[in-house]
Write a structure and sequence with these properties.
The complex is a heterotrimer of chains A (345), B (133) and C (169). Chain A is 33% helix and 27% strand. Chain A is α+β, with helices and mostly antiparallel strands and 345 residues long. Chain A is globular and about 55 Å long. Chain A starts with a helix and ends with a strand. With 133 residues, chain B is an alpha+beta fold. Chain B has a domain of 82 residues: mini-chromosome maintenance (MCM) complex, domain 2, CATH 2.60.320. Chain B is built from three helices and eight strands. Chain B has a four-stranded antiparallel beta sheet with strand order 2-1-7-6. Chain C has 169 residues and is mainly α. Chain C has one domain: Arp2/3 complex 21 kDa subunit ARPC3. Helix content of chain C is 74%, strand content 0%. Chain C contains six helices and no strands. In chain C, helix 3 runs antiparallel to helix 4. Chain C is globular. Classes of the chains: A alpha+beta (345), B alpha+beta (133), C mainly alpha (169). Chains in contact: A-B, A-C, B-C.
């Protein structure tokens, strides 16, 4: 009896005095790519392998798409603008160009993949940020026309028709990278992962406990806080807002999301737009386009489609959430004066 | 004064029950103290009820060494991205050093001679996995 | 020897023994095995159990108090006095109660005593620190007290039964 008791007691001691069981730690990597900080966390399968595969996928794309790297494929395309040469490109680059062009055509005036000359005039691509003089701006704006970007997916080539034109894939590259990274993680044999590619959050599968990922949407007026928390599974949430990158001149704030109609920072009454979609690339592109489009146009576009959902934060502190995100939605900004509305079809 | 307990030579069923009672109390207390596990931990260094320093661990990329010379027993803290430990203390018991690194919400390092508490808490308003924006 | 003098001597010897045991225990701290503040085997508790069983509650209290006071003088730590005294007194109270219950052996008494001792220590720490923080150490300490209590319980059983009853030797 005594022995049994002491064995029993020792068992309790072992389980009781050992450090409390830790949640399994994800394999993760944090790195700089595409001018932003990226975090990849993989929760199951061969974690470390999957993380490295995802990182490699992202860095490869960065190498192909960088506008600052003169040796990148995108730089080659821009360098040949107007000389009539169709530039042979990696199939990933043509896929991305074709997609960006299709969004430019879908939402004309709200999005244009050839906006780069205007971005350069504002200095958002360099560190010399300034309000451009009207002549410079008009000149840059005249070069913006995605209709003059020709993409041949079969031959995997692309061509810019006018000299001086430039393509910048900043508004879609992270979304495309998320798709590539997600595929790399799946190929490595993992199915539960969370990617944060500079504020574009991609949720793969579900959490270990079987529940959906919880993704906060940053409050554009107080970036340490969140507007709401969304439940996500196999989706990307991409957010665009003027708060992300801006400068001040003569007391006026100028942000980096340029309205291709005016060449000036978009002033649509929205502070931020979050797009949630199973199509990672679409989420990224639409967040920029619909930020420029404004609340009414964004909701109208949403009603005409079924493959994405929205969270809009307006300048008058309303948070408009489309009905597909209603389940699992947790508002977190009531104390800061936000009111919440559900938009229905 | 006679005592029945003093004359027994073997443990009784009641002994087992007493042990079970103590174990149950321990587990109940453990469950009550269990705090939400969170990705984002905040380490607070409290001296005599006053917060000396607070660290958001997710923001720590390089380990931070905090030396507290003014204490009755000077000590050195190491704050890292995944936890906090006491590297060195002049206190006699060394309990705080022996505690090692704490890494989870609800864990604590206590240095009684210094009346110093290092505690880890999960950040309440951050009950999500990632943030977009 | 008069009866009073005999009692005094007996208590003095037991106090010295308890003190020696607690100092000896301090030389080989259990906290090296388990980094748990306040964890100790509680060998000095043997003396308390013996005194409770073979002498009286009053003498046990006397020995305990003297041991704690002298111990803190030796260690030079007033704060330690608060802990050992609170823990010790609570343990004594619980054991004095249980030792007269019909169903228990010294195993159960010692386990309850060890658990009470740890609870008392933590309560004292909570008061001293003015914070509930030390409470997190109580569950593991309670679980450990099952083992330390069982060990000292077994030893005190031997002690109480093998040692001749005082005054009849």
């Amino acid at each position: 009896m005594k022995r049994i008791l002491s064995v029993f007691l020792f068992f309790i001691l072992l389980t009781g005095c050992a450090a409390p069981a830790a949640q399994t730690e994800p394999s993760q990597a944090q790195f700089f790519s595409m001018d932003t900080v990226m975090t990849v966390r993989v929760y199951d399968g061969p974690g470390e392998e999957a993380v490295q595969a995802a990182r490699q996928a992202v860095e490869e794309l960065d190498g192909l798409l960088s506008r600052t790297d003169a040796d990148s494929q995108l730089s080659a395309l821009n360098a040949h603008a107007g000389d009539g040469i169709s530039v042979p490109l990696d199939s990933r680059v043509t896929e991305l160009l074709a997609f960006a062009k299709s969004v430019s055509q879908l939402l004309p005036g709200d999005f244009d993949v050839t906006i780069a000359p205007v971005m350069d005039a504002w200095g958002f691509t360099t560190d010399q940020r300034q309000v451009p003089d009207p002549q410079t701006l008009a000149g840059a704006l005249s070069l913006v026309d995605s209709g003059k970007l020709e993409v041949d997916k079969e031959a995997s080539t692309a061509r810019l028709e006018a000299a001086g034109m430039e393509v910048d894939l900043g508004a879609v590259a992270k979304g495309y990278a998320a798709g590539q990274a997600a595929a790399a993680i799946r190929d490595a044999g993992s199915s539960s992962a969370l990617l944060d590619l500079g504020g574009n959050v991609t949720a793969l599968g579900r959490k270990e406990d079987g529940s959906a990922w919880q993704v906060g949407v940053k409050d554009p007026q107080d970036t340490a806080q969140t507007l709401c928390v969304l439940s996500m599974e196999d989706q990307t949430a991409s957010t665009s807002g003027g708060y992300e990158r801006y400068f001040e001149e003569n007391g006026i704030q100028y942000h980096h999301i340029i309205d291709p109609k005016t060449g000036y920072p978009a002033d649509s009454g929205l502070l931020s737009v979050t797009v949630v979609s199973e199509n990672h690339m679409l989420a990224d592109a639409l967040s920029t386009a619909l930020f420029v489009a404004g609340e009414d146009a964004a909701l109208e576009f949403w009603r005409s489609r079924t493959n994405f959902e929205l969270v809009l934060c307006t300048a008058d502190s309303r948070v408009v959430v489309t009905q597909g995100l209603e389940e699992g939605l947790r508002p977190t900004g009531e104390e800061r004066g936000y009111t919440y509305e559900i938009a229905r079809r | 004064m006679r005592s029945p307990a003093a004359d027994r030579r073997r443990p009784t069923l009641w002994d087992g029950l007493t042990a079970l009672l103590v174990a149950t109390a321990a587990f109940l207390l453990l469950a009550a103290l269990q705090s939400e596990p969170g990705e984002s931990l905040t380490a607070a260094v409290t001296l005599d009820g006053e917060i000396l320093a607070e660290y958001r661990l997710e923001e720590i990329t390089q380990p931070v060494t905090l030396t507290l010379d003014e204490l009755s027993y000077p000590l050195t803290l190491l704050v890292e991205g995944d936890g906090v430990s006491i590297l060195h203390s002049d206190c006699p018991s060394q309990d705080c050093v022996h505690t090692g690194k704490i890494t989870q919400a609800g864990q604590q390092i206590i240095c009684l001679p210094n009346r110093l508490i290092v505690s880890l808490t999960g950040t309440h308003d951050l009950d999500f996995d990632a943030v977009t924006g | 020897m008069t009866h009073g003098l005999q009692r005094l001597t007996r208590s003095a010897v037991l106090t010295a023994l308890a003190l020696a045991l607690s100092v000896a225990e301090g030389l080989v701290p259990l906290t090296i095995l388990f980094p748990l503040p306040g964890l100790r085997l509680g060998l000095a508790n043997l003396v308390t159990v013996y005194a409770l069983c073979r002498l009286s509650g009053r003498e046990a209290l006397l020995i305990l108090t003297a041991r704690c006071l002298l111990g803190s003088l030796l260690g030079g730590n007033l704060m330690a006095l608060a802990f050992s005294l609170t823990g010790g007194l609570l343990a004594l109270a619980v054991m004095a109660l249980l030792v007269h219950l019909p169903g228990l052996s010294l195993f159960g008494v010692s386990i309850a005593g060890a658990a009470a001792h740890n609870t008392g220590q933590i309560l004292a720490a909570i008061v001293v620190l003015g914070s509930r923080a030390p409470l997190v150490y109580l569950p593991p300490l309670l679980l450990c007290s099952l083992v330390t209590g069982a060990v000292t319980g077994g030893v005190s059983m031997l002690l109480v039964q093998r040692l001749p009853a005082p005054g009849r030797a």
